[in-house]
Amino acid sequence: MKISSSALTIGVDIGGTKVSAGVVDSDGNIISSDRRSTPASGGVELIATITDLITSFQSQYEIAGIGISVAALISADQGTIVGAPNIANLSKLNFVEELKKSFSLPVVAENDANSAMWAEYKFGNAKNLNPVMFFIIGTGMGGGLVIDGKLFKGANGIGAEFGHMNVQPNGIKCGCGANGCIEQYASGSALMRYAKEEMKADPIKAKELLKYSDASGDISGATLTTAAKQGNEIALSAFNKQADWLGSACASYTLLLDPQAIVIGGGVVEAGELFLNPVRLAMEKYMPFAGTHSLPKIVAAKYGNDAGLIGAADLVRG
Ligand SMILES: [Zn+2]
């Protein structure tokens, strides 16, 4: 069923702690939104929460489709959860089938990073570029890829999981079960590890950094961003290490995909050019066939927490 371009759709973004939903128009604008806590028991209760949100929007708007964005791996044949590290009782759940029991509307379900990638490609900072790839950098590291106007999924739905490329044989153990994934060197968790290592090695510099600490007296990603903007040595060094790894990954992926743009999203974007510029420099430093080809643009994501919701709402338009 083809959805008309003037119709409104609903996007639902399911994260480990929050379920955000919104009514979205065909230009990616959120007309109305609401959020709930992700039910701790997941599964059946989660479907009830989503159903409730959708029903409430339906009482106010004429809705033409539902797009689900979820922090989980989804099978390539649509809808079945293959793995969800942060949400309970999702294994084998099929969002598309469950929601079609209650709503006679088109429904799609997509991984959150893929949904966010789609929002950036359709309406954001990678609009009309081809191919485009996306790194979403938070505690972990997700990925997305659009080639010739289509979200790339691969044969089993694990395509474009860019955070899990091996960059260090027998390296640090990763949550995915493998060792030495780029996630362990270029994620927000890695940034914190670099900072803590340097604090341990140099207590005087550590004191300087702790001036920026939060109420609990500990450091966080936000602490490091603020401190780096003020020129703090440890914070800048930690960001530079993270950027160096990410830049080297960008160089490798450029050889694989030759993207026009690499979009970087997630919490790390708060650091802005302070982070993106070292990523560009590292990518140039590690680039094979340097000087013989143009380089992808490294850009910050336009959308923050709404990216998954906006992308999923558009994906149901088919
Ligand atoms: Zn991994």
Automatic annotation (TrEMBL):
Q: Which species does the entry assign this protein to? A: freshwater metagenome
| InterPro entries (alphabetical) | ATPase_NBD, ROK, ROK_cs
Q: What is this protein called?
A: Unannotated protein
